[in-house]
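Objective 1b. Sequence-to-structure analysis of Protein MgtC.
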Amino acid sequence: MRFAQSFELVPLLDTTLAFLTAFVLGTLIGAERQYRQRTAGLRTNVLVAVGAAAFVDLGMRVAGATEAVRVISYVVSGIGFLGAGVIMKEGMNVRGLNTAATLWCSAAVGCCAGTGQIAEAMLLTAFVLAGNTLLRPLVNRINRIPIDDRTTEATYEVSIISSREAMPQLRDLLVERLEAAKYPVSDVTIIDRSDETVEIVATLVSTAVHPHEIEAVITVLEQQATVINASWDGSTKT
């Protein structure tokens, strides 16, 4: 039997220790994610860590350290696809990036355990937990700082609602006024509002703006007889 020929007690103990380490450390990382009610929680992080440890350990036992390095590169690529599954885009907002990064780190912990670097796996786990917990108050404080439109790069949109007949002239006027104010336009979209009205939306190249300059453009547009409404908005969520 192949099992009887390949069975060795000491390597099996090493594998058991690697799996146990990946399981315990993955549990620590996953417990924090589960507490935060993230998409990838306790079981996912444990399975990622143990799976990475299993693949790397198998490569080590079958073909040595050289093959283990190749397996690690495949693990990194595979986790990239898994992480993409927890990233969700809602409008201009993106959610799940931190969870995906945590899965990536769980795989790294498993790889360390699979190569027998238990101390390094524990150290990496400590840094992952610190990043997800100790840095949270700092992130919250930064997020509460009022945004200064003059220093923050964002994506801004200027829109006007007008009659359908006046759309070509107002579209050109909108682009002309924005570029005269040194705000280049990256795209212009026409949205049907009704049989008689349309909305012209000009998306600016990502930049920082001076609100009073944009307001000046809006004031000029509102003075046009065929303009029903003019407004602008910006988003810093990318």
